[in-house]
Backbone:
């Protein structure tokens, strides 16, 4: 929780954020509110999962990539740079 609240960017890989996981939802929501400058990236092939995160975090701080981890890794550096333009990935 502390790290989420202090992060400049958060990368979520394939966690579906089920409706029943109230602890994860609570922690993500609190971290999002405490640290409004943080950028979030979700990588998940499911449209439903992407919608769940968009409902929780909106579209300003959250970028979603509707792909598998293998697809994301194909262009890893470019994908990270697109999601987190303030971070130097060299």
Residues:
């Amino acid at each position: 929780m502390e790290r989420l609240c202090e992060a400049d960017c958060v990368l979520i890989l394939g966690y579906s954020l089920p409706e029943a996981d109230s602890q994860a939802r609570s922690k993500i929501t609190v971290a999002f509110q405490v640290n409004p400058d943080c950028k979030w990236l979700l990588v998940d092939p499911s449209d439903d999962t992407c919608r769940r995160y968009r409902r929780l975090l909106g579209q300003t701080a959250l970028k979603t990539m509707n792909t598998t981890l293998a697809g994301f890794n194909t262009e890893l550096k470019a994908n990270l740079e697109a999601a987190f333009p303030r971070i130097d990935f060299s």
The radius of gyration is 13 Å. Residues 2-83 form one domain. The mean pLDDT is 94.
